[in-house]
Each structure stands twice: as C-alpha cells, then as structure tokens.
Predict the structure.
Amino acid sequence: MNAQESLLQYFKDGTLSDCTAAEICRVLKIPRREQDRLTDLLDSLCDSGELFRTNAGRYGTPGQLGLIRGTVSGNERGFAFLIPEDRTTYPDDFFLPRKSLHGALHGDTVWAERVYGRSDDEAEVVKIISRGYERIVGTFYKDNRSGWLRPDERKYSEDIYIPLSDCIRIPDGGKAVAKITDYPRGKAPGGIIEEVLGDADDFFAEELSLIRSFNLRKEFPDGIEQEAERQARRSIRSEIGKRKDLRELLIVTIDGEDTRDIDDAVSLERTEDGYFLGVHIADVSHYVAYRSSLDREAFTRGTSVYFPDSVLPMLPRALSNGACSLNEKEDRLTLSCLMQLDKKGGVKDAEIAETVIRSAHRMTYTQVQNILDGDEKTASEFSDVKDMVFLFAELTKLLKARREKRGGINLDVRETKIMLDADGEIVIPERSHLFSHEIIEQFMVLANETVAEYMHALEMPFVYRIHEKPDEEKAAALREFAGNLGLKARFDPKDVKPYEYQKLLKSAESLPVSSVLNRVLLRSMQKARYSPVNTGHFGLASRCYCHFTSPIRRYPDLCIHRVIKEVLHGKGAEAERAYGEFVNEAAVQSSECERRAAEAEREVDALYETMYMSERIGKQYEAVISGVTDFGLFAELPNSIEGFIPIESLPGIFTFIPEHFLLKGEKESWVLGERVLVEVDSVDFGQRRTRFTLLGRTPADNVNATLLPGKGEKS
C-alpha cells in the first residue's frame, strides 16, 4: 500500500474524517518537513474525487462531510438553487447566494455543503462535478475589445466571452450557438461561435434557436446518411423465404394525412370464435444493427421530434420514409403480433412472428371515418376493405368496453394542433378526435400489452413502459378538490386504484366541472417512463405494458424488437448477455430524450402560438379558466391556446386558495373551469406568452365557446 492509499484508508475508517491539514499532521505525527508532501497527497485525492475539501478547509469523503450532490438551477439575478439528487434525504431545494457558487453555473452538477447560521436552507458549492452546457444559444453582440453571447436561457446568468479575432464575420445582434471552451477562475466562460442562426427578429431563426437550445439537430453526422442509404438499398428477396409470408392477407395502414413514416399496419378477420387481429410493425432492426453507427445515432436521439413546419427524425429519411416505411403495395419486412380474440375482445392466443407484408392501401383517419359515417364515394374507393373497416369499428367498441371495465382512465384533455397552410400562414383549428383514431389506439395498446406480457413471462431483459401510482399528497389534494366540487371521491390516497379515478371522471361526465376535473386529475398523476423493471401502467390499468409499435420514431421499440427476434431464433441466452445491462441504459436514455423532445415541442408550439396571437390583438374570445395561481389566471381558447391574466389587472384584492384552485376576492372570485370572456391584450415573444384582459363571465347557457368577431376567420 503506497502513501496515498494509506492516507485514504485513514479517512475511510474514520480516523481523519472532517479534519484540517494541521489536525491531520497532529494525528499522524507528521514532522514539519513532510507537511508539503501531505498537502500534495491531499490535493491529489481531492482532484480524483475520492476526498473533498470544504470551504472551511476540512477534508473527508462526501458522506463524512455531509455533502449534497445536486444540480444548480440559476437565476438571472445571479443567485441560484441547488436541486438535490437524493430527494428522500433532502426533499427541499437549497439557496445558493452568488458568492457561494464559486464558478458554478445553471445546469452544472456539483457537490455542496450546507451553511448553518444564516438560514436552514442555504448551501455553498464545494466542487463542480460536471458542466451542464457544452453549447449554448443566444444573441451575439460586440464591444470595442471583444464579442459576447448573451444566453437565451435566462437562468444562465453569465455572458460567454468570444475573442475579437473570432468575431469578424458574425453580425451584431444575430442569433448564434457558442461552444464553451473554458471556465477561467473569476471570469466569464470563454467560447467560440459554432453556428450563426439568423437575425434576432427572424421568426425562423428564433425557432431554430429554441431547437438548438435543446441540443437537437435535423442533420445527421457525416457518414450516417450514407450508411442509411446503403442499408435501404439491401434486397429483401433472400429474407422473404425465412419469414411468415402475409402478402396475401388484406392489410392496410391508417395514419394522418401528413404522416410520412408509416411504421404500423393492421388486419382483421372474423373467425368462428371471435376475431383474428394482426398488428404489423416495420422491422427496423433488420436495417439498424445493434451498436452500429446508425444504432448509436438513434440511441443518442432517442425519439423523433415533431414541430409545426418540420420533423427531426430518429433515423435518416432513406429508412424512416423509405425502406422501413410500410408503403402501399410494396413488400416490407415486419414484426407481427397476431392475436386470436374471443367474441368479447379477450386475447385467447397470440403469436409474435417475423413476417413480410404488402399493404393494400395507405388510408387516412378521415377516409376511415368517412366510410363509417356512410360516405358512399369513399366506400366505393376502398370497396375491397370497406367490410374490414366496419369490423375494425366493431372490435374497437369491444376493446374500449373491456378497458373501461378494467378501470382504464380515459382523460379528455385536448392538445393544440398547429399547421402551416399553403401560403405559410399559421393555422390552429379546434381539435377534433375522430372515432377512427380510437381504432388504431386500441389495436396498438392491445399489441403492446400482448408483447410485454409474453416477454415478461419469459423473464427476458426488456424495456417496459411504466406509469406509477399517483403521489399520495397529490392524490389527497385531488380528493379534496373533487369533494369541494360536490363529487364523491372516497379513494385512499396512499393506494388509489385506476378504476377509482375512472369512476370519479364518469361521475362528472355530464356536469360543467367535467373539463376542470380532467385537468386536475391529470396533474395529480405521475409521468409515464421507460424501465427495465415492470411495475405496470396505472393510466391504462395494465399489469404489463411496453412500446412495440413505433420503432421508426422511438428507440425503446427498436431495442425490444432485437430482444424479441433473439427469442424467436431460440437465442435467449445470447439476448441475456447482449441486452441484460443495456436495457437499463436504454430506459434511462429514452426517458430523458422523451422529456427533452416534449419540452422542445412545447416551447416551439408556444412560439407559433405567440406569433398567431400577435395578429389578433384587440379581438375578443370566449375561453375557459385553465389555471389559477397566486399571480393570476390562465384562460384557454377553443383551439387550446392559453393566455395569461395578471392578478394586478383584476379589480380588487384577491386571496389564492390552492386546494380549491380559486382566487377569492372581496366582491368576485374566479375558479378553475369557469367560462369567461377575454380580449387579447399583448404578446411577449421572450416569454412566448399571450396576455389577456378579463372582460367578465360567459353566459352559463352558452356551452360551446366560440370566436366572437369575424366568424369566417381561421381559428
């Protein structure tokens, strides 16, 4: 054991924990002439992360010193908060004054120590473990001696220093991306401009800035496009003979009009005992080998990301829109879940098989709905599949009834649909949900459950889609809120069951409070995520669930396809070795990528909504109060756009009662779910927020909120 190892052992056994250098010398009886060597050893152990030195000069392991590992959440005024990783021990955040950051910035992972005496919730950074940003987006400007990038992320309180020699061709006031190259002690971070995005007042430059701020790109690295094209050119002729040939089976795809990557197809036949349902999914894993360059890129992206004017695909176009897309009347390799159902829609038997299919038609939700609604022209156009479409509807109603009986929660929460018309104008229609959407939803959910249960029974490494029970505190708040609405909610918040939430929703179905209850119930639930351990799916009331049906746009689906195929080939042991550890890595990465993509889509949608509303200032609308806070109200229009009503714009003094979602005033009060009349006051592009002026309540008998002026206007 060398001197460094011996010194570390003294700390591990507690002999030297929480000691200063002088105290260590006394304990170990180190002579004065050796003290410099001790300091070098201590510095080396601190550099390696095995020991830490507090700002008071005391040494020890993180546990001995009571250090807290967490992420810095900055503030534009210079101070920050520490968000602890261990929420069990530290449920609350800690305040980090500017002087206690010691060079740490928003997004950094750090070790910090509590500071006692000033307050109970203050901390000080001891060591920066890793930086949160490698690149950052902002507005570029110059002074006489240098260039600077002011980050769009307001929590990142330091501008990035750009050497003047690197600023010659960069326009002042433009949007740009800087790569951070160094963090000089006591100075602003240094960097170089990697990409100029456009002028600050350019809408599409602003959109691209948002996309880059989430570290997202449409372009693929060098060689990835070429590899995808090479894989797409591979002939499938030799592969067809090795698979179950379903090309004579009547199969269709059903998607939106603007869908390009078609990765699922369906077939259905009536049998003596019930139904034979086939869900056929593009076999992306045939083209994207495990740990290949294509696979590593797909893993990094995790998911395709969808914006109003573009898609950032997980896989290059040659695969996502080409070889893997289940195009009409083209032979395609698939992985099929073939299910024998009884007359009530229950799965009696199932087979998962490598298959080859040929889709008869590329149908849209609108066309399927037209057939169901009796449109003769559409029915004639698809005469060969018309009967199957009605059979789709028959089975869908059975599956919906089964899921409802089981307790599946069907939330009625609308999402904003943003489109660009032929002239490039933003169009945000009122969102309609067709029954034809439910056909694909029900069939895909059933296939996902069937596949997950099969693999779970085999105890193979797998990526499950889990949705945990609601947090006890949030469930209790929902129960109290429902009681205040006059509804019966007798569930136990510690162990709420899906059917109890479903029962609560059904009790309010025909009441004016239905929409508000949907919102509050949604907020009480956890977020679904990926996991290598099956814990069930609360929202679907499913014991076992996975994502099997979209391998073109989701990495977990691609990952589990590989495991399934190994099992089908009798290589379970090989799958254990290859994927035993990887499924955990894939679950964590995919959950994070999904969260990032959802945030990016939400922010870009908000930018489009703000632009859309900027052309409607002064117009009046009917709306619904969709949020109540201590600083104001949020109101939602029929097309799902939300605006903010500041509390200071409301006449009178108000008290916020959070458990009732209520702003209580002396003369007038406002509660979640009320119908109101608003006027568009202004927009803030920086915050991507629309401000409304509250004009009053809407007449109670006006059930359908509508646009008041300009009836022919696009909504």
Q: What stands out?
A: The longest strand covers residues 331-342. Residues 337 and 447 are 6 Å apart (CA to CA).
